[in-house]
Specification:
It is found in: Cell membrane. By secondary structure, this protein is of the alpha+beta class. It has 4 domains: about 200 residues, no CATH class; about 210 residues, no CATH class; about 170 residues, no CATH class; about 190 residues, no CATH class. The chain contains 25 helices and 26 strands. Strands 17, 18, 19, 20, 21, 22, 23 and 24 form an 8-stranded mixed sheet that branches. The chain has a 6-stranded mixed beta barrel with strand order 4-5-10-7-9-8. Strand 13 and strand 14 form a beta hairpin. Helix 2 packs across helix 12, helix 2 runs antiparallel to helix 21 and helix 23 runs antiparallel to helix 24. The longest helix is centred in the middle third of the chain and has 38 residues.
Length: about 800
């Protein structure tokens, strides 16, 4: 009966002051909705790759590489490693190598399509828990003629899963493969993305260099037997490559290490050869933001409830006079806070349901609210109770402490401790908001910088076309036809896209090089007209020329490489790659071949107009893209009819390097705006509190002739001082956090003073707009009404 009375009282109070209730519930609802969205995103990130049955025993092998005084880390390992490890160490139950996602052409039943896939050993489906719909994990990739298809690919070519098993599929118009298994389409919480798998030996045959222990390009996965001591095995693996002399040398040493596979998605960056971070920094950052937003919402509740407390003074006085103990009042007020939180929770859930589709588009995920999971409701119920208790605790203690005599006289005053506590809450609240504003500005500027910075080549109006099948032998004809096509200016080729070049080698020598030093230099095979097609600036010498036959032994280097070689007059100076002696024919200005996360490395270009594979680069005239693409498709179909064309735009490929940053930028913008909006509700609460406390003072000042401007300054001055303190306190913390985030980029913006000035001005302007309405309302009120009780 008592709790029912509490509920009825709380309900009447909610209905009595609808504007207060709406503001309070909307603030909490927005805070809970934002935090819940972040929590769902964080849980999804942490759940990537954690669904495999062998999760506790599934590991990736990485290398710690030592050379030239440098220590690097990499997941790239020799192609022979996976099978060799299983043969040597009885602790390893299963192993497989994997390469990289490749787009290949398949034909069956008169259908020709390109599909993305990878390679795996016969252990693959014993290692990873990708459900098989047809076939068995023991026979799925048993021979080099086997191929495993996803459900989607099986339905594309054969109409159904059942019809696909045992069928023949033409691969790259050069081999017939048998469908030995069909697996379920990969789930969204898998970092692996492929629609088919070929036998690992097929990869080794196609890439003969992978049979050398000195080449590192494949991934290695292992599953340990039950009860294996991971630490002990890790120690054994550390110097494993010493048994393969061609895997390292006196100047290059590689040590192996193990990382749990499900941790790789979030922890994939290396520092001094050790795993040091990755996407986990974003997970941690947004986890903190979720806490910030909830704290801001709770502070709002405290401010708004306390601001409204004067109106409940007589109610509290009556309850105390008739015998209500303070404990009972505290329970009542905390109960009211929990009730408001429950309403906010319902509104917050509805908001999440409404915005989740848009949120999934922004984050490129498929997050769903787990309504069918009991744990979800238990956690949310606990959140409601916790937030309600935290939000209502201070107002409950404060309201229950009213003196009933003062309440009846209308002389309620607040002590210095209470006032300083409230001011501290406002400062803390705006500290969090200003930190979010600074962070949003820095993220926005860095993302804008990486999107607009000149890379040293012109990525606009540049198209890449992969060389498929026997097309490599027809490149000269293709190039000649394209150069006669309207809208096409230049054509060249390269062995990989500029954003994917990772061909490092230590096999470069020059005059004066320390023979004991291992120096990693990136080498790229290119065709004629490469520099003009790419728009790269030539500093010295010349480009490769078909008129000069000796250019097949010529090299073009970038500025960073030239500093390494220390040639003052480099043109004509000797340079040797893999024992092939040649000379430097040109020097180009440094240009970026990877993301701005890494520094520009020494680079050398070698001529290979007749390379097998690679990419054709096509420079299109501005404004004639559609015309040029139509010509490219027509010529391709005539020369390579069995392979569908696949083309990509250079600027779009570059943007893919920063997909994570773009998502983070959008999320930062949205959550910073929400945090600011919720903070403004808190300011509104403090303004209500201040004006109600000083109603009679304002009335007296108006009667004595005080102008509205001076009265406005009187009421806003204190709040602006609090916000200024928040700006001063938040700025160094924001600088420290964002400077740490920018340290992941080799090329980045500077965090300048104007960013903090802008953030502070935004906070002040938003605050003034927020408090102006309530302040002006108080100033324009009839002073007679406020002084009538006197």
């Amino acid at each position: 009966m008592l709790y029912r009375n509490y509920f009825n009282t709380a309900w009447r109070n909610l209905l009595k002051d609808k504007s207060f209730s709406a503001i309070n519930i909307s603030g909490l609802a927005l805070g809970m909705a934002c935090s819940l969205l972040i929590v769902l995103w964080v849980l999804d990130e942490k759940g990537i790759d954690a669904f495999h049955a062998n999760d506790s025993r599934l590991y990736m092998v990485y290398q710690e590489q030592h050379y030239d005084g440098i220590v690097n880390g990499s997941y790239a390992t020799p192609g022979l490693l996976a099978e060799d490890l299983k043969q040597v160490y009885p602790e390893i139950e299963y192993s497989t190598g994997m390469a990289w996602t490749t787009s290949s052409t398949f034909e069956a039943n008169g259908k020709i399509f390109k599909q993305d896939g990878d390679y795996g050993s016969s252990d693959f489906f014993s290692i990873f828990s990708f459900p098989l719909l047809a076939g068995t994990k023991e026979t799925a990739l048993k021979t080099k003629n086997d191929i495993a298809l996803s459900r989607k690919m099986a339905e594309i070519f054969f109409g159904s899963v059942e019809a696909a098993l045992g069928q023949s599929l033409r691969y790259e118009n050069k081999a017939d493969l048998k469908v030995s298994a069909v697996f379920e389409d990969l789930p969204p919480n898998s970092s692996m993305k492929f629609d088919y798998l070929l036998n690992w030996e097929t990869f080794m045959d196609e890439q003969q260099w992978s049979r050398s222990w000195g080449n590192n390009a494949s991934l290695c996965f292992i599953v340990l037997k039950e009860g294996t001591d991971v630490s002990a095995l890790n120690d054994k693996l550390h110097n494993y490559l010493d048994r393969h002399p061609d895997a390292q040398s006196e100047t290059f040493k590689a040590k192996l290490g193990l990382q749990k596979y499900s941790e790789q998605y979030l922890h994939s960056e290396f520092e001094n050869g050790k795993i040091a971070g990755g996407r986990i920094q974003y997970v941690n950052l947004f986890s903190v933001i979720a806490v910030f937003i909830i704290l801001i919402a709770c502070i709002n509740f405290m401010n708004l409830t306390t601001a409204r407390s004067i109106k409940r003074g007589k109610e509290i006085g009556v309850r105390k006079v008739v015998g209500a103990f303070r404990g009972a009042l505290i329970r009542q007020f905390i109960g009211e806070a929990i009730l408001i939180t429950a309403f906010a929770f319902v509104v917050g859930i509805l908001l999440v349901v409404a915005v989740l589709p848009v949120f999934n588009i922004i984050t490129q995920k498929q997050i769903q609210l787990p309504f069918d999971q009991g744990e979800f409701w238990i956690v949310l119920g606990a959140m409601v109770l916790l937030i309600g208790f935290i939000s209502g605790s201070y107002p409950a203690l404060y309201l229950s402490g009213f003196n009933p005599v003062h309440a009846f006289k209308g002389t309620l005053k607040f002590g210095g401790t209470a006032l300083w506590f409230r001011k501290g809450l406002v400062v803390f609240q705006f500290m969090l908001s200003i930190m979010l504003i600074v962070g949003t500005i820095v993220v926005y500027r860095q993302v804008s910088y990486v999107q607009s910075v000149h890379l040293g080549y012109d990525r606009e109006n540049l198209i890449y076309v992969p060389v498929d099948g026997p097309f490599a032998k027809k490149y000269d004809v293709f190039k000649d036809e394209l150069l006669r096509t309207p809208g096409i200016k230049l054509v060249s080729r390269i062995d990989n896209r500029p954003t994917r070049i990772v061909n490092g080698t230590g096999g470069v020598t020059w005059e004066g090089k320390d023979p004991s030093a291992f120096i990693d230099i990136t080498q790229v095979a290119v065709g004629y007209d490469f520099m003009r097609t790419m728009g790269i600036e030539l500093l010295q010498g010349r480009d490769f020329s078909p008129e000069i036959k000796s250019d097949t032994a010529g090299y073009i280097v970038n500025e960073t490489a030239l500093k390494l070689f220390n040639y003052k007059n480099p043109i004509g100076m000797p340079l040797t790659l893999w024992g092939m002696k040649g000379t430097i024919v040109g020097v180009v200005k440094d240009f970026h071949i990877n993301s701005l996360h890494v520094e520009i490395k020494p680079l050398m270009l070698r001529l290979n107009e007749a390379m097998n594979g690679g990419w054709v680069m096509i420079r299109v005239e501005p404004g004639k893209t559609n015309e040029a693409i139509a010509g490219i498709k027509k010529t391709w179909k005539e020369l390579n009819p069995y392979f569908p064309i696949d083309y990509q735009f250079s600027d779009q490929e570059y943007q893919k390097l920063y997909a994570s940053e773009q998502v983070i930028e959008k999320l930062s913008n949205a959550f910073a705006l929400m945090a600011i909006f919720i903070s403004c509700l808190g300011l509104l609460g403090l303004t209500m509190f201040t004006t109600e406390q000083r109603t009679k003072e304002i009335g007296i000042r108006k009667i004595l002739g005080a102008p509205l401007v001076s009265l406005f300054n009187l009421l806003s001055k204190e709040l602006l001082i609090l916000i200024s303190i928040a700006i001063v306190m938040a700025s160094p913390i924001a600088w420290y956090v964002m400077n740490g985030w920018l340290s992941g980029y080799a090329y980045k913006i500077d965090i300048t003073l104007w960013i903090f000035i802008l953030a502070g001005l935004l906070a002040i302007v938003i605050a003034l707009i927020t408090i102006s309405f309530q302040t002006l309302k108080a100033l324009l009120a009839n002073p007679v009404k406020s002084l009538r009780s006197e």
